[in-house]
TrEMBL record:
This is Glutamate synthase (NADH) small subunit. The keyword Amino-acid biosynthesis applies. PROSITE patterns: 4FE4S_FER_2. Pathway: Amino-acid biosynthesis. It comes from Mycetohabitans endofungorum. Coiled coil: none annotated. It comes from the Bacteria. Residues 37-68 form the 4Fe-4S ferredoxin-type domain. Gene3D superfamilies: Alpha-helical ferredoxin, FAD/NAD(P)-binding domain, NAD(P)-binding Rossmann-like Domain. InterPro entries: 4Fe4S_Fe-S-bd (IPR017896), DPD_II (IPR028261), FAD/NAD-bd_sf (IPR036188), FAD/NAD-binding_dom (IPR023753), Glut_synth_ssu1 (IPR006005), Glutamate_Synthase (IPR051394), Helical_ferredxn (IPR009051). GO terms for biological process: glutamate biosynthetic process. Keywords: Amino-acid biosynthesis, Glutamate biosynthesis, Oxidoreductase. One of its GO terms (molecular function) is iron-sulfur cluster binding.
Amino acid sequence: MGKATGFLEYERRHEAYELPLERVKHWKEFTHALTDEDAKIQGARCMDCGIPFCNNGCPVNNIIPDFNDLVFRQDWKQAIEVLHSTNNFPELTGRICPAPCEAACTLNINSDAVGIKSIERAIIDKAWSEGWVAPQVPKLKTGKKIAVVGSGPAGLAAAQQLARAGHEVTVFEKNDRIGGLLRYGIPDFKLEKWQIDRRMRQMEAEGVTFRTGVFIGKEPLPPSINNAAKDTLSPDELREQFDAIVMAGGAETPRDLPVPGRELAGIHFAMEFLPQQNRVNAGDKLADQLLAKGKHVVVIGGGDTGSDCVGTSNRHGAKSVTQFELLAQPPQEENKPLVWPYWPIKLRTSSSHEEGCERDWSVATKRFEGRRGKVEKLIAARVEWRDGKMQEVPGSEFEMKADLVLLAMGFTQPAAAMLNAFAVDKDQRGNVRAGTDGERAYHTSVDNVFAAGDVRRGQSLVVWAIREGRQCARAVDAFLMGASELPC
Ligand SMILES: Cc1cc2nc3c(=O)[nH]c(=O)nc-3n(C[C@H](O)[C@H](O)[C@H](O)COP(=O)(O)OP(=O)(O)OC[C@H]3O[C@@H](n4cnc5c(N)ncnc54)[C@H](O)[C@@H]3O)c2cc1C
Ligand code: SF4
């Protein structure tokens, strides 16, 4: 522990950021890593409290007190060793993780938590800029071949771990670029995409082969799921060529809103809207991009995806942006003694909300109306929640002008076509059935076929996908070799 009295002496330091009026003019990231001095002070605030709840709150179990101390001592090289020992891609989590570790920080009981996420980002950004992140090429090859289906954070983490264990790994991706939702979904202003390309180059040097534009399945996917594949391989063909397969295809089926008027033009899933802007930012030319410019935009769904639609609509130059949420407005502050060290339900205002947006809660959309086949307004009503049941408040119906409606109500399950093609068992929610413990950890009902990330656990977070990819890699390695030295 660097400084015994640091938590008493120093306030939490925040990353510098561009003001909303400036940042909405561009698509670049707008927060900047802590300076060395600020990171040192942030690290000094860690109490090394004996039982590091933060380490448990972090899904990849980052060894947080150790790297806090190393940053306080400005031993950045050792800090990245510690950070990389549990997390393949801290440049992702240091930017877009909601930081459940900070909710679990002991200092958070009666003060501001240590800014763990900002320290994580400072460590990895320095490591890349100093040239300390080098490929880890295995000394021995096992001769085993593994296919990873899907190139989101779960597939990438699994592929990197398996390649480092000496296996020959090929990642198949149906879209034209690697990254899953990191690439097509999460806006560039939250995560610039060269971060993915840089890791890809490291992984290629470690022996991973990437094959984009290849769909693994049999039946076509529904139009609500992005698919730019030119080639198709069946799971049977994959099984003939590889010793093991990791399914890491995400949970891509969007939740729909089947109310009258849903068929009108101008009503789209968030994932029809967001990836288009990712593509344009990458230099692609789109014939008919969905744009919010000059429109009254209504985003339905109050989560992360909805917030990303708000930020993107404001950058397009929307006339107004409104976000509706079906659930009641959560409290401004959590009752810390009651909920600590768990992730609290409280009002969260994202950087996109700060850029301009009306938010409203307890609102149910009843129907859409329009003219000449185009949406013009939505009719909604207020709802009350009693004993977990939703009831419409009588006489509360109202209408709202809407030229563009974005449905961001989450994802229900993986593409059924993919799961059917592999003939794996599903759980009650339609995800791939596979446990995380014991001899058959991450193993599906089909021999040699494993599953990790959203395809197994349902819609979740990048950090959980990395955890599952790492643990699944260990399970595959042990299955093929009889034992594994990969970390769990
Ligand atoms: C708009 C949006 C914003 C988000 N923001 C955040 C955030 O800020 N922080 C956070 O932690 N999480 C966020 N999430 C959630 C996070 O992105 C996901 O939990 C995470 O990406 C899941 O990783 P994954 O590897 O399991 O799947 P995915 O990232 O979904 O990747 C799956 C990949 O598999 C490919 N694939 C699927 N089927 C096949 C097939 N049959 N053949 C070939 N390829 C296939 C898909 O094309 C896709 O590229 C966000 C999600 C969305 C939609
Ligand atoms: S990965 Fe997320 S939970 Fe873990 S230390 Fe980083 S910010 Fe915290």
